[in-house]
Design a protein that fits this description.
29 helices; 14% strand; alpha+beta
Amino acid sequence: METTGTRMCGIAGMVSKKAVELDVVRDMCAVLAHRGPDGQGFHEDAHAALGTRRLAIVDVPDGGQPVYNEDKTVVAVFNGEIYNFPELRRMLRDRGHCFVANGDTECLVHLYEEFGDRLVDRLRGMFAFAIWDERRQRLLLARDRVGKKPLFWRSDGQTLWFGSGLKALVQHPAAPRELDPVALHHYLTYQYVPAPWSILRGVRKLPPGHLLVWQAGVPVTSRYWRLDCTPRAIESEEAAAEELRSRLLDATRVRMIGERPLGALLSGGIDSSAVVAAMARQTGERIRTFSVGFDEERFDERRYARALARHYATDHHEMVVTASALDVLPLLSWHYDEPFADSSAIPTFYVARMSSEQVTVVLNGDGGDELFGGYLRYLALARAGRIPALPLLRDRLDRIGSSLASRAAPGSALQRTGRVLELLGHPTSRRHARLMSSFTHGQKMELYTDALRAHLADVDSHGLLDDAFAASRADSDVGRVMDVDVNTYLPGDLLVKMDTATMANSLEARSPFLDHHLMEWAAGLPVRLKVRSGTTKYLLKRAVGPWLPPELVTRPKMGFGVPLARWLRTELADLSWDVLTDHTARSRGLFRPEAVRELLRRHASGHDHGNRIWTLLQFELWCRVFLDPPVPGIDRDLASRR
């Protein structure tokens, strides 16, 4: 066993009925070095090998991993932060446990001894961890409630491998690198691969709020937490606003703890502005804030970020992202591990890089939209909900709406009209699914080659949202849609984007709105306090409005988008044509070349197919990074370019 140093942000390991291979685990950790540049640690015994990469935040000098119980029969490796660890340590000491360091990770092994798998109920924070119980030859894997930290795994019936990134799982010489067609099918719909799938056949993601137990070669997963959106009565709107302020201040306070420089990502929206305001109310130090913008005003929010920065006299930094910055696309493909087509990953990567030059931890506003009703689609669904589904006209409405939406300028009234027409033939869950889709099922079938079409014709990607919609306890369709987003879009897209961009730059991101105490309270609020009379985030604006400049409270919702349609007609036009139509792309046998060329031609002529082209482009670039080149060469080359 060897250890150096505390908080790490990358874990990997293997457990087996046979002998384990520590050298493989070392290789798995090596490709995660960007997640934890401050050190590494390993454990090995007859049937388990665990490894860590560490980014030191708390207990910087002494908090090494792996950590052990008193007789070294229980060992843990950990990725994340446990914000209530001081209380946990006091409770565990009172129960007779001994600690050798001052950080949070050591709590895990003692909590496991006291509470078994239900230790997760005691944790307040973000985490992915592994606990090896040597006496029982039993592995416990856990992922935090909403999926802030990633965890991949695969098993062959004898051995189980796990890691913080997909690239770690394929370091074993015998690991398959075979595309999972169903995962690809879902990716083309949502622009990310939803858990439990991964893009590679045989590799899975542990879903948020889940445990995995491996014993005697058998892995079993189970869910330990789900947000309960059952509505409850409130005393008054003012009391609810005061409670929101109090809970946000508390969630922010615990996330400001640490021994490394701290800052905030400031978009200029309500959520990140509220977090900065909550920070300013609890520190006498000048807060460092970081923003990015674009040279196209419709996508540029810097003026709002500057207003907030002036209001609180922050040490503010910003940059402009242009299409010329996209020479990092192969690097992003390497860091994201899977195809990922949320184009806001680009500005997120750059603001993380800029922040990492001055701080090690940043707070952000992730989760505010899902909890408090911030997306404009919630308003659209509320309005469309007044019109019953028209199934007999579904196909005609879909064709007309799709034609209007693709012909119109992004964000224009004509495009919005087209999107509304696309919704009217469907029930609410499918209306939401259409709003969240890059490609519809029919568009995918037109894109696929005959062989892939036959394989996937009966796979319904929208069924994933149907299931989440049906499982919600919210009492309204809009409330159920918000719950669906918490269980799908938030962990599958937004948290992947933030964790990957920050970890690529050895930066830790913390999200006060995703404190589970705040989430559980907000989930029970009536929907009328979230989406009301054409207003989004009604209660949040009422609660934090006194903290913010007036123009931030009344500003229209913009979202963190990029001028993708224009880029794909100008600076990125040649790249998209070259990458998507060359021999390498055609030889995969997945997409009909004529369908791809037609999509590119239609976009060039003025129709808006930017999201679909971007989705295909990100997939092809991922293939070239992960499937085509020799693995060690491309991995080391891209890692060295970070």
